[in-house]
Amino acid sequence: MQKDYNELTRRERAALRQKYVESQKGNCYYCSTPLGVPPAELRQINWRLFPGGRNFLRYPIHLHHCHKTGMTLGAVHAYCNAVLWQYHGR
């Protein structure tokens, strides 16, 4: 199911994100909690590192992808996506 994030249109990203949600049985790829419920915010996020600052959270479910290869990995909470990038470089 992996696709190159950089080659997808906005609509294609939304459709792929939904496919990941379904294949993950509605759980976050990173924290494994339901995507319909906000995750526990256990780490401090430096919002200045992200495009739009706190607007990064405007869309609660993100399509996570590798920034080196561009390949999609799964659907994650917006907060988990921030944790993955800031703390794990992913």
Give an overview of the whole structure.
This protein is an alpha+beta fold and 90 residues long. The protein contains two helices and two strands. A hairpin with a 6-residue loop joins strand 1 and strand 2. It is globular. The protein starts with 9 loop residues before the first helix and ends with a helix.
Number of helices: 2
- According to DSSP, the number of beta strands is 2
The class by helix and strand makeup works out as alpha+beta
- Summarize the amount of helix as a percent range: 25-40%
Distance between the termini: 19 Å
N-to-C SSE string, H for helix and E for strand:
HEEH
Overall mean pLDDT: 94
Describe the oligomeric state of these chains in a short phrase: single chain
Overview in brief:
This protein has 90 residues and is α+β, with helices and mostly antiparallel strands.
Q: Topology, pairings included?
A:
Layout: H1 10-23, E1 61-65, E2 72-77, H2 78-88
Antiparallel strand pairs: 1-2
What keywords describe this structure?
90 residues; alpha+beta; 28% helix; 12% strand; globular
